[in-house]
Amino acid sequence: MRLTLKFAFLLILAQASVRSAHSQNSAKSGCALNLDISSPPYSPLIIDANTKIVMPVMEGTARVIHLTEGERVTVSCLGNGNVMKATNMQLNPTVCTSSSKLQLVNGTELPYAALACSKANREVLVEKPKSCANGLGTLISNGYQFGNEFISLYDMCHDKDFALNYYSVDTVYGRSANAADRRNQRPSFSQDIYYPGLNVSKLYTQVTQTETIANILGSKELATHYIKPKTQYFLSRGHLAPNGDFIDADSQRASFYFMNTAPQFPTFNGGNWKFLEEGIRNEAFARQLDLTVYTGTFSVMTLADINGLPKPIYLAFDKNNNVKNEDIICPDVCDQIPWVTEAILLKPFCN
Ligand SMILES: *[C@@H]1O[C@H](CO)[C@@H](O)[C@H](O)[C@H]1NC(C)=O
Ligand SMILES: *[C@@H]1O[C@H](CO)[C@@H](O)[C@H](O)[C@H]1NC(C)=O
């Protein structure tokens, strides 16, 4: 096994599809669930008849989920052992009433505040049968198990042999892009069952990465020139599918996987890259469109070594000190993105 972690990013934008308009109904009849003032401690996910998470929109300064009167939704507390406290059930079919309540099958009407789950919704990872990145990667879907169905949040293309991530695919929901939960809880990153034999969290620590880079460059002094702990100059865990693209706090938390990261300097991650991510969300909101976003890595960063020669930088090597020999050119994924040949902007890369 040869292990690499790669550095720069490439972002490919984006599919436009008009979202169903059901969340755009006026608040006059039906349900308007104000998430800011009536969320229970562990909020459920509201799943519509198309097995989609119903997302809030901004109304003034409030995040509000709209349902039409008579609309059937499943109030869901997802993940192992998670249930709605009022019923002790994970999946609760309900109907939205004229008084902004959700009616259980036995007739009881409950306000949103009474729909607490026993804990936070919890995602699962599912490996897809099809490979990605020209057969080099394994496609891992991150989402929720919903009865017998799977609600995908985003996909990750991960190379198990080389311990690197090619790209992630997520959706920016235009109508809700400005209505994300803003508590910004940042859990630690999980490697789940991936990167066997590696402790990725440890590899990323500023102490360890400084040692690794010192070995590559042949100079501790040079390494401490490039990596300055507690400043903006070290390699941080840069999200591929951005935390900020997800709307509810539980789905945001589900973005914290090492298979969804590439090493990034904070100057860039919190600078130009952040503005790019925000720009995409702003564009999706302005046009009220859903965008499918592919975010990937490109090539391997180099730093000048003790002799001034550019050396590729990796966070891990295998026990024979191997890394992948050839430069990994971003695999051509155009044939996985049917609309791409239509996209004038991207056409030059795909022909
Ligand atoms: C309906 O179900 C809820 C939750 O299980 C329960 O609290 C309530 O008493 C039930 N109502 C009726 C009328 O059976
Ligand atoms: C990985 O390393 C960290 C220290 O950076 C340590 O706290 C953690 O327990 C290690 N995890 C495993 C699974 O060994």
UniProtKB/TrEMBL annotation:
<dbReference type="Pfam" id="PF01223">
    <property type="entry name" value="Endonuclease_NS"/>
</dbReference>
<feature type="binding site">
    <location>
        <position position="269"/>
    </location>
    <ligand>
        <name>Mg(2+)</name>
    </ligand>
</feature>
<feature type="domain" description="DNA/RNA non-specific endonuclease/pyrophosphatase/phosphodiesterase">
    <location>
        <begin position="150"/>
        <end position="349"/>
    </location>
</feature>
<feature type="active site" description="Proton acceptor">
    <location>
        <position position="239"/>
    </location>
</feature>
<keyword id="KW-0732">Signal</keyword>
<dbReference type="GO" id="GO:0000014">
    <property type="term" value="F:single-stranded DNA endodeoxyribonuclease activity"/>
</dbReference>
<dbReference type="GO" id="GO:0005634">
    <property type="term" value="C:nucleus"/>
</dbReference>
<dbReference type="GO" id="GO:0004521">
    <property type="term" value="F:RNA endonuclease activity"/>
</dbReference>
<dbReference type="GO" id="GO:0005743">
    <property type="term" value="C:mitochondrial inner membrane"/>
</dbReference>
<dbReference type="InterPro" id="IPR040255">
    <property type="entry name" value="Non-specific_endonuclease"/>
</dbReference>
<dbReference type="GO" id="GO:0006309">
    <property type="term" value="P:apoptotic DNA fragmentation"/>
</dbReference>
<keyword id="KW-0378">Hydrolase</keyword>
<comment type="similarity">
    <text>Belongs to the DNA/RNA non-specific endonuclease family.</text>
</comment>
<keyword id="KW-0540">Nuclease</keyword>
<dbReference type="InterPro" id="IPR044929">
    <property type="entry name" value="DNA/RNA_non-sp_Endonuclease_sf"/>
</dbReference>
<dbReference type="InterPro" id="IPR044925">
    <property type="entry name" value="His-Me_finger_sf"/>
</dbReference>
<dbReference type="InterPro" id="IPR001604">
    <property type="entry name" value="Endo_G_ENPP1-like_dom"/>
</dbReference>
<feature type="signal peptide">
    <location>
        <begin position="1"/>
        <end position="23"/>
    </location>
</feature>
<keyword id="KW-0479">Metal-binding</keyword>
<protein>
    <recommendedName>
        <fullName>DNA/RNA non-specific endonuclease/pyrophosphatase/phosphodiesterase domain-containing protein</fullName>
    </recommendedName>
</protein>
<keyword id="KW-0255">Endonuclease</keyword>
<dbReference type="GO" id="GO:0046872">
    <property type="term" value="F:metal ion binding"/>
</dbReference>
<dbReference type="GO" id="GO:0003676">
    <property type="term" value="F:nucleic acid binding"/>
</dbReference>
